[in-house]
UniProtKB/TrEMBL annotation:
One of its GO terms (cellular component) is plasma membrane. Belongs to the peptidase S26 family. The keyword Hydrolase applies. Keywords: Hydrolase, Membrane, Protease, Transmembrane, Transmembrane helix. This is Signal peptidase I.
Length: 180
């Protein structure tokens, strides 16, 4: 009787371990926010879960990889969008998008250089091509984003940051401060 119970518990433990590993490999990616990834919504040493299967939306924070290194940025434009930054204003599909998430009291002024999809792609595209994204950091002085790497392809995106594990005082879904 005791031996059979031991086998049942071991089988159950093995099933739980395999389930956690499967979720980690195919669904979720844990992300520890470093200083370069941090902004007013994500702070250094936060532990965040990136969902590999979530459909990406405007304003989402995404984890992506360029040359083997991981980065976090905000989705500004998606397939088919035209984008112009002019005099520090974002025009997406010829409409002004108010980036209220950048206007935080006590934060230094931000400035985004004038650019278009044409300038980022060296005149190869006038709109964001299929399976590509324009991703920018909230810290606009840090140009390690689409301004340096070009448009980010769907294959480079690991997942969308959705849930904060630590610190426990901020446990819950990620606030995005959506663009209006």
């Amino acid at each position: 009787m005791v031996k059979r119970d031991l086998y049942n518990y071991l089988g159950l433990a093995l099933l739980v371990i395999l389930s956690v590993i499967a979720l980690r490999v195919w669904v979720y990616e844990p992300v520890s926010i470093n200083e370069q990834m941090a902004n007013q919504y994500l702070t250094k040493n936060d532990l965040i879960i990136a969902d590999r299967n979530k459909q990406i939306e405007y304003g989402d924070f995404v984890l992506y990889k360029v040359d083997g290194k991981k980065y976090v940025g905000r989705v500004i434009a998606m397939e088919g969008d035209s984008v112009t930054y002019l005099y520090d204003l974002l025009y997406r599909n010829d409409e002004i998008i108010h980036e209220t998430y950048l206007n935080i009291k006590g934060q230094p002024e931000y400035y985004t250089e004038d650019m278009t999809i044409e300038t980022l792609t060296h005149d190869r595209h006038s709109v964001v091509p299929k399976n590509s994204y324009l991703i920018l950091n909230d810290k606009r002085t840090d140009k390690r984003d689409s301004r340096q790497f070009g448009l980010i392809s769907q294959k480079q995106i690991i997942g969308s940051l959705t849930f904060r594990i630590t610190p426990l005082g901020q446990f819950g879904f990620i606030e995005k401060g959506l663009a209006q």
